[in-house]
């Protein structure tokens, strides 16, 4: 192929990137991401440390070594320091195990006290694939990036398939890296792991080295909840949790086309954007794993995302870890630039957590405010009435039930709930006025 045709193909790829939604910020997202907060300053003129800034995307480092473990396979190795990437910090096996336990994605892990109980004293392995398609039996993984912590450095290994006939060699060299008791991916449950499992079978490379436990960070991101202006893609999670957007990156749509160009031209410079994209995906997962662990513990790195703290509190409350749920909710309330704490959903959850922790007076105050504003959930009227009854204020307890009956009769067809509240109201009227139940007129 002549040089003019090659240049034309590269221009087409660049045009695809300009039009890609994942490579360029859409106009309706320009004021909803980190750039919107970049101009917010404190009174002393300094930027708030909890707010994301318009940090430049880190440059792609050169590989420490380039070797050929087999014919048709190239291995590129990188050694990164924590300061080479925003929020990159050592994430041990116990940290990932705690995230497993907190989020509850794998029930069997909850019984393990530490990574050694799971048989995982080694650090977790982060995996990301680049393939020739986005699904199907013919999908070929031509680039596999794995990362793990070793002696204070984050080591990334990229296995590049130079010849399709060497697929078995690539999989055989990749298999030892996957034999970890803790494997971390992003959407790997639906894509990376099924692709590798199929290729191990179809290529005859042997059985797939299934990990002892697999943590999909995409599932964690979804459980932490949505934030206006962000999706759950890896690039958007970088913008939301790490505070910057990628610049000069390619989208997954262009990756197969670039590999096909490389196969035809044998020009390694064509794959440089793909190698950079894969490297940054692996490092981003390591950073996000640490940030997600911090959010679940209501740590300092979660202070700029109250929506995620609400999601973490919801997860803890569902698992009856009410003290940790309270810590997450109070951390979200401390954030000065959010109105999340005034929403009915937030106050309902906070009231439930406080009630379970025995702080009944504060919980009753929240529920009374919600009732006054017309937002109290229909199932919490009985709880508020019971609180006032135990406090000796029978008039107030009865008033709550009468208000609930008047409202629910007009708004809901839940006859079982209405009948339960009516019986409680009848019992309170009898205690107050000594009236037999048969003399009480129906509502």
Structure description:
The protein is α/β, with parallel strands linked by helices. It has two domains: 3-296, Nucleotidyltransferase, domain 5 (2-Layer Sandwich); 302-439, Tetratricopeptide repeat domain (Serine Threonine Protein Phosphatase 5, Tetratricopeptide repeat). The protein is built from 16 helices and seven strands. It has a seven-stranded mixed beta sheet, sandwiched between helices. Helix 10 packs antiparallel against helix 11 (322-333). It is elongated, with a radius of gyration of 28 Å. The N and C termini lie far apart (86 Å).
**What is the annotated CATH architecture of the largest domain?**
2-Layer Sandwich
Superfamily (CATH H level) name of the largest domain: Ribonuclease H-like superfamily/Ribonuclease H
Q: Report strand order across the widest sheet.
A: 1-2-5-4-3-6-7
Q: Calculate the terminal CA-CA distance, rounded to whole Å.
A: 86 Å
Share of residues in helices: 40-55%
Q: Give the helix tally.
A: 16
List low-pLDDT spans.
20-56, 107-115, 437-443
Structural class: alpha/beta
The largest pleated sheet is described as:
7 strands, mixed
Please provide the count of β strands. 7
Strand fraction equals: 5-15%
Mean pLDDT: 80
Task: Give the CATH level 1 class of the largest domain.
Answer: Alpha Beta
Write a short abstract of this structure:
With 443 residues, the protein is α/β, with parallel strands linked by helices. Helices cover 47% and strands 10% of the residues.
